[in-house]
Amino acid sequence: MLRTRRTGNSQILFTLSGRIETTEDIEQLQQLLAAETSGQQLIFDLKDVTLVNQDAVKFLRRCEADGIKLENCPLHVRRWIDQVKDRIRRRGV
Known about the structure:
By secondary structure, the protein is an alpha/beta fold.
């Protein structure tokens, strides 16, 4: 189960905890992002995220590419994101 908490004014911090492993989890995060005013710094604090799947990793990589900061990213998640980035770079996508 994914839980989110939003804090901030000029910087928006979403504290995520639990698992990001279903389509519904990713859709929930997309809806949160869509509701924010453009021009604000968005941050995902992933310290308490315990499990992700491949779709979640791809989503987080896209978020990071779009300028969303990933704070306290668990090492196993960071490595997986970096592997996806490297694979995309090698393909020239």
